Amino acid sequence: MKIVIFGPPGSGKGTYASRLMKRLGIPHISTGDLVREEIRNQTALGKTVEKYSSSGTLVPDEVITEMLKKRIGPELSRGFILEGYPRTVSQAKELNKITKIDAVVNLNVPDSVIVDRLSARLQCKACGAIYNERTLKPKVAGKCDKCGGELFRRVDDQPEVIRERLRVYREASEPVVDFYRARSLLKDIRNEDPNVDPEQVVDQIMKLI
Ligand SMILES: [Zn+2]
User: Which residues lie below 8 Å from residue 3, measured CB to CB, with a gap of 6+?
Assistant: First the structure.
């Protein structure tokens, strides 16, 4: 099964994707992780991405698509859960050329819940793992459970910055949602309870896909 998990920043995409991965036994591909990996390994693609992000410009579509093709190719026959891509209609069309997606899980979460959740978020400097001061605390304060790396709060997780990110997200994502809805692939998940058990949401997703 080939699934895209789609939703605003802070909607829990990564959390649900990794739980779905366990239940379905297929890999979870996160473009965020791919980018970090390429940069860490200092590949040609990694160096290109680094150049863009250090100058503060958006990494062009084709660079991300190239990165994805490299990884998605070997996983095609097994199926996958894709997170962080597509973000635009042109990326959705690119993905369509690579493979046929079976379902797009669209996470609908109110802004207030997202602002609340993201402002409590911590990330590992070394491996990128995400924690939350309220809902997903690390075992040792300030340290990553997986690699022992230092946890930090991202500058873009400040409430005003989050609201602006959400506005930008909605503007860019609505056409993508329409693109998949028109192809009857969209599976809407509504999640208004900030303290919902992630497993419950995953149950809901399993029923829809
Ligand atoms: Zn870590």
Answer: 20, 79, 80, 81, 82, 101, 102, 103, 104, 105, 209
Residues by chain with Cβ below 5 Å of ion ligand 1: 124, 126-127, 129, 144, 146-147, 149
- pLDDT in 10s for each residue of the chain, 209 residues: 999 999 998 898 988 999 999 999 999 999 888 888 898 999 999 999 888 877 877 788 888 898 899 888 888 888 999 999 998 899 999 999 999 999 999 999 999 989 988 889 899 999 989 898 888 899 999 999 999 999 999 888 888 889 998 998 888 889 999 999 999 999 999 988 877 888 999 999 999 99
Q: Is 167 a catalytic residue?
A: no
